[in-house]
Sequence to fold (105 residues):
Amino acid sequence: MLTSIPIPSSTLLATAAILSTHATVDLAREAADKVALAMLKCAPEAMSTVKGIVTAGVAGERERREAFLDMMRPSAEAKEGIEQWRTGKGADWIAWKRNAVRSKL
Fold:
């Protein structure tokens, strides 16, 4: 929401509207790079589902139920993640997504 009221960074941190604050632009870029690298380790559809669950948390009962059912459905992504977890390796989600797109073409 846009507002003309200044909001202190401490409030934004407390409400998880922002992840962190930094004294310099370079430190902020370093932090952003770390977050981006961490996101590469996350399954793309799972990240989307989590966002939907968070959104549904403030919605009605029907939306929460639908988000839960979406999360619990079997998927190729879940299968890949479980297989990679069992081998002790991290999944290469970029390569997996490229292969999934190629197989649809």
Summary: Helices lie at 9-14, 25-40, 44-57, 61-72, 76-87, 93-104. The chain has a mean pLDDT of 79. The first helix runs from residue 9 to 14. DSSP finds six helices and no strands in the chain.
